[in-house]
């Protein structure tokens, strides 16, 4: 059975904003997995990329990573955070990657482990 790791907007922006080698770190933490992201995350990244500056660049890189490396899935929810929680509650996600504290708490409440930044550029898992 494949491990599904669902990435949110903040996770996909980590390579530029926080100098995190995202997929290398996920390989280290999880091993073999299917990187997945809900469609609303792509929409959020697209909107953020239009702002320009470092955030816009990070969002553009995140969008490219998502479309090139992730399985993009449709959800009932149109808001990115709600879509991630939906995937957690439905048992689609084995892990969710986020640096958003409010989202982290919601995912942990749904019983799914969260992978987030620990230290300067390493990822670690928080269990529910």
From TrEMBL:
It comes from the Archaea. Residues 5-120 form the VapC9 PIN-like domain. This is DUF188 domain-containing protein. It comes from Natronosalvus rutilus. The lineage of its organism: Archaea, Methanobacteriati, Methanobacteriota, Stenosarchaea group, Halobacteria.
